[in-house]
Amino acid sequence: STEDTAAAISRFREFLQINTSQPSPDYAKATNFLLxxxxxxxxxxxxxxxxxxxxxxxxxxxxxxxQLPSIxxxxxxxxxxxxxxxxxxxPFSAHLDSxxxxxxxxxxxxxxxxxxxxxxxxxxxxxxxxxVRTVYLSFVPDExxxxxxxxxKFAESDVFKNMNVGIVLDEGLASPTESYRxxxxxxxxxxxxxxxxxxPGHGAKLYDNSAMENLFxxxxxxxxxxxxxxxxxxxxxxxxxxxxxxxxxxxxxxTPSPNGFVxxxxxxxxxxxFDIRVPPTAEAESLxxxxxxxxxxxxxxxxxxxxxxxxxxxxLSKFGKxxxxxxxxxxxxxxxxxxxxxxxxxxxxxxxxxxxxxxxRYFRELGLPAIGFSPMANTPLLLHDHNEFLHQDEYLKxxxxxxxxxxxxxxxxxxxxxxxLRDEL
Length: 425
Ligand SMILES: CSCC[C@H](NC=O)C(=O)O
Ligand SMILES: [Zn+2]
Ligand SMILES: [Zn+2]
Fold this sequence. Notes:
- It comes from Melia azedarach (Chinaberry tree).
- This is Aminoacylase-1.
- With 425 residues, the chain is α/β, with parallel strands linked by helices.
- 33% of the residues lie in helices and 24% in strands.
- Strands 1-2-6-3-7-20-9-19 form an eight-stranded mixed beta sheet.
- Bound molecules: N-formylmethionine (FME) and zinc ion (ZN) (2 copies).
């Protein structure tokens, strides 16, 4: 009814209005809000603090057959910072404009999804639906800063083990077309800092091997590589998640002076940082070689650090295979998702590799299937951007979609092949 949808929109906006922006998210307020939602839905709830002041809210809708592995609907409660003065409306006002757009940090990434799960359950409960498989909802902290104190600790916990999870749904991306996007894997972050050293000298002197000159050679090489990868995407030969992306995140050099920088002194040190994303199937070794030989060669007085390098190793399973969720007949959750979306009058595009990182990687690392999916069609991709918004009609459509998915997943009584294999271990 109209009242129901108006109430759903106002609950969404209330969640958006909680400032859970990194680096100091108001997790206490978000937790209280989520617990009150859980109460109104008669869901079992617990608050887990793997790290103090970083609560994870875990909700449970028990299924009639607790022997069957459960469904986990995951979302993160934190959001990225905003440059408030560059927004048309304050990012935590959740302004609803005359066209029906809701502007807020987190409207796409990903408070929408967390609330849509809850609204879908609200409707399913009202219709008298009973799940066979248990449905869990996790609202986790700190995804935007790596998830180490959130989803990672959760995935490693006994609580998680005892939940006997069989399938995880996590975030995807908005789609500007009428088809939703779904993700079966993600690229691996490498955060690279390269540092050049060289003799200082007079700003008027031309000489070889200055720190700036050495760094510039690297930057030129990085740029050529970046262009080669981007060209593959522009030519339509590769999808965004199938190439290596490289973007410069910072440049640091020069000698500060009261009115800026000293201009006639060539600095002895210069640094640049790059956000690199590596597809799960890419040749990590050849990229590593490129870094040591072309981007930060010792012969040019350069050094480098890969802050997130450990991730690379963990993106491979124990058997050295890339971590992917199957999209073929071996994974019934995929076809169930496709069918459920179709039943709710949605369209689903071809499965993709997520270009950035999500908490789904911690669940995939356990060998669990995890699908990245945020039902936002006809919506520009605005996560981490100014004026992030979601149209209320798309938000409401997404609730229909989850209603259909949760119904289908929670009613799936067969054991999947993975579940049988796990039982035999
Ligand atoms: C690599 S940990 C940071 C995770 C972050 N996730 C979403 O934007 C990202 O930068 O992809
Ligand atoms: Zn996110
Ligand atoms: Zn994000």
